[in-house]
Amino acid sequence: MSCSHECKPDWNAYLLGELGPADRRRHEECASACPACREELATLRVTLDALATLREEEVPRRIAFVSDKVFEPRWPQRMWQSFLRPSFAAGAVIAAAILVHAFVRPPAAPVPPPADTAAIEARVAAEVGQRMEAQMTAAVNTAVDTAVTRAVAETRKQDDQRTAALLSATERRYADAAEFLDKRVTQIYALNSGAGVR
Amino acid sequence: LGRLYERSQHLIFREIEDLDLIAKARRGDVEAYNVLVSRWEKRVFNYLLRLVSNREDALDVSQETFLKAYQNLRKLDDPARFPAWLFRIAHNEAFSLLRRRKPETELAGEPRPRNIGGRLLPVELSLAVESALKRLSEDQRETVLLKIYQGFKFEEMAEILECPVSTVKSRLYTALELLKTTLAPTVLREES
Prior knowledge:
The structure holds two protein chains of two kinds. Chain A has helices at 11-15, 21-33, 35-52, 75-104, 117-192. Chain A is mainly alpha-helical. Chain A is flat and about 125 Å long. Chain B contains nine helices and no strands. The chains are: A mainly alpha, B mainly alpha.
């Protein structure tokens, strides 16, 4: 072996794409300088290529779940999700606002402070930004809902097509078998009745 | 506003991702879960098929895997880790089956791949690969399935198999060494 393996090559990691660019280069240099390393690399590559010939099999029948009571969340969970959680959240926000207002309320000033237009503008901009974000989030959710509905419909359509194809193939097979049997019965009948005997 | 517009465009025109389906399924949307299943069933079925070596068992275990995944979907802390989490469930279900049927399916009598003189047909090579995979231990075979056929990273494999990355690597490398000894001579002989 002409390679001293000072670089300690890990050809598995190299072929599995687990090395960074520097390590890959180091391995490539090692392979170009050492026939034994080249042979090792080639053998491993052949093995991985052979493994890649194993094809994925189709699932014999689709795995699907129905909208069954068993899968639905229990009523306390549904209540919590649909009504109680938002209510609690809203209540908490209002309570927090009241508390904050009570603690940070400035003492009554005889003279109202001059209006800070820059601050008002910033607040308005922030409010607009928040509202727009809320609207966009709502739009995104609607888009996601639509797309999920479309994906469900497509999956169903593919199922129907697959079922129709299987049904058609089975019918063809049965028709062929029936035709074959029919011919055989006719032959046997002909033989038994003497018509087929020469 | 420009940034907001860009973000909204990105969100509206992106594909429906597994994360969306997981979020909907977590809220009890069975149809969204069925779409998620249709995306993953082939990979899970093939992984289980190579692991338990029986189509009916693989289908039953796949069904069981997806049912358990649905029932425990709320416990999934980080939905981005769904693939590794799903395969962890599949792994547990498969090994539970393998433990139950251990005494009746020893591979000792399994014939070695034939020493084929002529050119190998693709189907013959596939059979040789299948046979070589069956000769590995279950632990070794599983690392090959997860890495070569499912493309998981070593860290994800460690999570699925609940063992250190070093163990995963050691099992995989031993398995590849054994496969190399079995498969490479057959392929190289027919090429020469």
